[in-house]
Amino acid sequence: MENNQFGNYLKSLRLSQRMTIRKLEELSGVSNSYISQIEKGVSMPSPEILKKLYKPLGVSFSEMMVKAGHMQYEDLDDYLIGQEPELDDESRKIILEENREKRIEMQEKLKKSEELRLKNELTLKELQRDLHWVVNRLDSTYKNMPLTDNDRYDIIKYLEFLFHDRMKPESKE
After folding, report:
1. How far apart are alpha carbons 162 and 158 in whole angstroms?
2. Residue 81 maps to a domain
3. Which of 57, 93, 165, 166 is the most buried (most CB within 10 A)?
4. Would you say 67 and 6 are in contact if contact means Cβ atoms under 8 Å apart?
5. CA neighbours within 13 Å on the CB side: how many for 139?
6. pLDDT, tens digit, for every residue of 6-56?
7. Residue 133 falls within a domain, yes or no?
8. What is the CATH number of the domain that holds 25?
9. How many domains are contained in the chain?
């Protein structure tokens, strides 16, 4: 990324946080004049400066490193295992921690998704059971008219047609 592009990126991050340059200076410890130079594309920040900026701007350190051109997403594994000399130990530690947090977050989302899927599957089975019970009752009526066997068959076939793309084949246990 060119200096000017990174400067625009940094400025958009700062503005999205509704932050002045002086407020960013206060939170990061980077001088407002240097922040201004970065935003104008005059300077490109080092990894050391990015370490100070990423938290107040609400982004990950690795994202800022990629945007500033200090690393590429494809090379992240090399940085993490220490084969890239450009990163110091503190930078590696920050990136490792960010990735660990993302993995934990993804595992939690996956677990919640599986729990929701199981709950929906149980609900569907309960609804199928209840519908089957209602349709197959001998005294089932619609607008005070008793359902015939043909009506029951047609209702089941119509519902199967409506929901065919959402139904899983029943397993034979």
Report:
1. 6
2. no
3. 57
4. yes
5. 0
6. 999 999 999 999 999 999 999 999 999 999 999 999 999 999 999 999 999
7. no
8. 1.10.260.40
9. 1
